[in-house]
Every structure is written in C-alpha cells, then in structure tokens.
C-alpha cells in the first residue's frame, strides 16, 4: 500500500482528495495546522471511507517540526501539497503572511523530499499564475504574467521553486496542477467547504446568505467587458478536482511523466459569470438570493477559464459534474452544518 502525505489535508480540497486517495487504496497521512480547518473533518472523511487517516497536527512554518515528521515518516511515496493561504483579497492586504505561509512551507517540505531516494510531488497551483490572459480559453502555454495579487505571486514563485529543484534533483518528480475555481461538496454532505469567519470565496458566501447567516452577498463589479458585466470564472466541482490529484499522483508513481516537472490546467473548459453562478444556485435551491452590486475588488481578473485538452488527453482526466451539481451539493452541505 503506497503511503501518501497530504498537507492541508483537512482543508476543502485536501479533505476531498484524501477521500479519493482512500477509495483507491492508498494509505494517507494528513498534516494540517487547523488554521483554516477543523479536526471534525476527520470524522467526515472516516464516515465516507470507513477508514480514519493518520492525522498529525503540525505547522509547516516550523522547520524543525517538518524535519522531525520526515524522520518518522521517511517511507512516504508521494506528497500532495495543499497547505497554503488562498484568498486573493486577504493577500492584497497582508502580503507578508502569504509569502511566509505559502513559500517557506514549500521550501521546508522540498528540502526533506530531497533527502529521499525517490520523491513524487503534486503542487496545488492556480490559474492566477496567468493573470489576465491574452486569449481564452487558457492553455498551459499561456504566458505567466505579473501576478494580480500576492496570492497569485506565491503560486508563480512556488512553481519556479519546484521547477528549479527538479532541475538539480533527479530523484524529484513534480506536477503543478493549475486549477480554476473549486466549488461544491461531497454528495454525502459529510465534508465540504468550511470557512472560518466571513467567507472569502463566492459559493460559501452564497450559501451562507441563503441560509440567513449573512445579510447580503456583494457582487464585486458589474461593469466588466463580459455578457452581464460580472467576472467570468471556470467553476469546477471539488470532487472532480480531487480525482484529478489522484490521477496525477499515479502518473508520477507509474513513471508516465514525460519530464520531471509538468503542468496541467484543471477546469471544466466553460466560463460562467458571477450572476450565472447565482442563478444556478437559485435554480437548484429554490431560494431567492439577496445580493447587491458593489465596486470592483482589487486583484480580480476579468475572465479566466481553462483549455482542458492537455489534462483530457495526456493526464486522462475529464470533469464530469456540472455547475448545477456543485451548487446543489454546496447547498446540501450548508444546510447540514447549520442544522448541527
């Protein structure tokens, strides 16, 4: 049984990926510092898979703790690295937090992987590396532009750190997965997106507004050059995204990678405006959402959606679930946690 470390494994995407790894028979070890997650997520994972993964509460910013972990777990076959701060708006206001949390932690993990005979590394990257792309849909060959936010910059720099490490470390193989906008929840409603405090992502703010936890949703800008004036995003169901991580990991474990650093876009290939996302939620939930148009938000790009051909053909992965599926599952999850 292959042993896989998932950093940030109690977070939104991490927890769904742990579930898919366990479904495929992997032994999973989770590292999480619980800064934006909850230990209760372990119960949800166990409820779905019937097996509780090993959990180590650890802050990857503590280099000594990272070294101690890898001394104990020197038999990991692969690492999927999610642990990072991820909100565009927050990163604009607190850039140093993002540089410390997203880059130092990456370096410490890679330093330990360099000590292993063979290391397989999946990096949680983002379409933010493209900035405002010149052409849509966005291919992996699109130029990486100056980042629109410190968060985006940490993903750009993170990829460069990994790429440079792969050049000089023949034992290290890595894939950066540049994903677009993950939303939704597991169909069981046992795990989902669980923001602490005020949500910084669109869909949990939608569901919290609909359930009465938030008074009103702000739509940031309606004067963009899009069909209805609101930003366009490629909303991908988190379960589809989780499955892609497992497929990418298996590609490395099976030696099917063509170079020791590869990049894949993960999205549906379809762009939806913010207002279209709201309408989708209203349709599947039967709820009328209270929202207002607010000024544009610094750091937001106008439009971003993926060209998925490379992921479809080389990786052998295709998204299967729709925007409506994602909204339906997110609403089911929201009602479940409020009923608790």
From TrEMBL:
One of its GO terms (molecular function) is UDP-glucose 4-epimerase activity. Its cofactor is NAD(+). GO terms for biological process: galactose metabolic process. Its EC number is 5.1.3.2. Keywords: Carbohydrate metabolism, Isomerase, NAD. Homodimer. It catalyses: UDP-alpha-D-glucose = UDP-alpha-D-galactose. This is UDP-glucose 4-epimerase.
């Amino acid at each position: 049984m292959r042993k896989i470390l998932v950093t940030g494994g109690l977070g939104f995407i991490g927890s769904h990926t742990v579930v898919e790894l366990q479904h495929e028979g992997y032994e999973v070890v989770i590292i999480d510092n619980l800064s934006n997650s909850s230990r209760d997520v372990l119960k949800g994972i166990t409820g779905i898979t019937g097996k509780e993964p090993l959990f180590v509460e650890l802050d990857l910013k503590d280099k000594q703790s990272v070294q101690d972990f890898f001394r104990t777990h020197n038999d990991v076959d692969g690492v999927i690295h999610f642990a990072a701060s991820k909100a565009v708006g927050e990163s604009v206001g607190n850039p140093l937090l993002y540089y410390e949390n997203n880059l130092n932690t990456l370096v410490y993990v890679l330093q330990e992987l360099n000590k292993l005979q063979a290391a397989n590394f999946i990096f949680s990257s983002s379409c933010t590396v493209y900035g405002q792309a010149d052409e849509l849909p966005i291919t992996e060959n699109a130029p990486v532009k100056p980042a629109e936010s410190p968060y985006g910059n940490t993903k750009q720099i993170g990829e460069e750190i990994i790429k440079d490490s792969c050049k000089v470390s023949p034992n290290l193989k890595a894939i950066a997965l540049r994903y677009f906008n993950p939303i939704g929840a597991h169909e069981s409603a046992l795990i989902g997106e669980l923001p602490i405090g005020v949500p910084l992502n669109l869909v949990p703010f939608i569901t919290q507004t609909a359930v009465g936890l938030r008074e009103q949703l702000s739509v940031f800008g309606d004067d963009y050059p899009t069909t209805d004036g609101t930003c366009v995003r490629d909303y991908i169901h988190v379960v589809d995204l989780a499955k892609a991580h497992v497929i990418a990991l298996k590609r490395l474990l099976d030696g099917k990678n063509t170079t020791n650093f590869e990049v894949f876009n993960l999205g549906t290939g379809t762009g939806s405006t913010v207002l279209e996302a709201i309408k989708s939620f209203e349709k599947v939930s039967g709820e009328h959402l209270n929202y207002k148009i607010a000024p544009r938000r610094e750091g937001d790009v106008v439009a971003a959606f993926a060209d998925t051909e490379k992921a479809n053909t080389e990786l052998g992965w295709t998204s299967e679930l729709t925007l409506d599926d994602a909204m339906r599952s997110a609403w089911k999850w929201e009602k479940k946690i409020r009923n608790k």
